[in-house]
Amino acid sequence: MKRILLILFAAIILFAGYEWITFPDVSALATKPPTTTAFMEQRKAEFRAAGKDDAIDYRWVPYARISPYLRRGVLVAEDDTFYEHDGVDVKALEEAIRKDWARKKATHGGSTITQQLAKNLYLSPSRNPLRKVKEYFLARSLENHLSKKRILELYMNVVEMGERVYGAEAASQFYFHTSAAGLSSSQAALLAGCLPNPRIMNPGAPNKRLRFRQRMVLSRMRRWGYLFEKEVLTEKKPLPAPATETTATTETTDTALQQTPPTDTATPEPEKTDTSPPPPTETDTSPPPETTTTTEP
């Protein structure tokens, strides 16, 4: 028994040492965009294994050249506590674990934008517990070395938004034949809404699930989107909540917010009085049922 324990202890030490040696230097991302990601390389390998061309569309653009509508849409759709957490939303993680335990199946990730970025950059879609542990430490490292604005910029540039399509610029050009800066609110909500599973919820041919999420994102953007982005841009400086979304032109930390966003006549005027924080995602009205159900990678 002692020999088995010693072997197990030695294996743990060796594994920990290997992980420490191979742990990526995330500080380089503060000034340089990634040339590729683990998710991109995995997809390329899958294409090659199927005898297909492994070309993908990935175009880097700076934060200021991404529509404010999309920046806010991603926040309200993917991580409405992005400004508050340090890489991991403990409450959301506990809720995901509780649901997975009840269903006896790992279906809820409880991942923040920072965790999703860590997974995209360095890991795999696997839900292996050891991979989740590494994801946790990578997320904390990203938060320690990068600003919230930089993390959001990286995420919107590398996240998959369709088959072979990665990042806001590539998706905007592919689906709407416009730049990421020129997206309307409805177009941005469609892209933000597809993020849980862009291969199934295709912005080019939206299904009922995606249309539901588009409406949800639009509603949340009108209520809280500006507040969330303002917090990201100002980091941890306390600022009074704006009375209406039209005060976005007063923002001085990001010149993109001083520009008039693209006009979208199909979108109702923003609500001007409700600036209270959003309710938990679970309280949203259930979307229309679909014939196909998928699990987020």
Layout of SSEs?
Elements: H1 2-22, H2 38-49, E1 57-58, H3 68-78, H4 90-103, H5 113-122, H6 129-145, H7 148-158, E2 165-166, H8 168-176, H9 185-193, H10 208-234
Parallel strand pairs: 1-2
Helix pairs in contact: 3-9, 3-10, 5-6, 5-7, 9-10
Mean pLDDT: 77
Q: What is the β-strand count?
A: 2
Series of secondary-structure elements, N-terminal to C-terminal: HHEHHHHHEHHH
Number of helices: 10
State the end-to-end distance.
39 Å
Main sheet summary: 2 strands, parallel
Q: Which strand order do you get reading across the main beta sheet?
A: 1-2
Give the C-level CATH assignment: Mainly Alpha
List segments where confidence is low: pLDDT < 50 over at least 5 consecutive residues: 237-277, 279-286, 288-297
Beta-strand percentage range: under 5%
Give the CATH architecture: Orthogonal Bundle
Question: Gyration radius, to the nearest Å?
Answer: 20 Å
CATH H level, superfamily name: Biosynthetic peptidoglycan transglycosylase-like
- Structural class by SSE content: mainly alpha
Q: How would the global form be characterised?
A: globular
CATH topology name: Penicillin binding protein transpeptidase fold
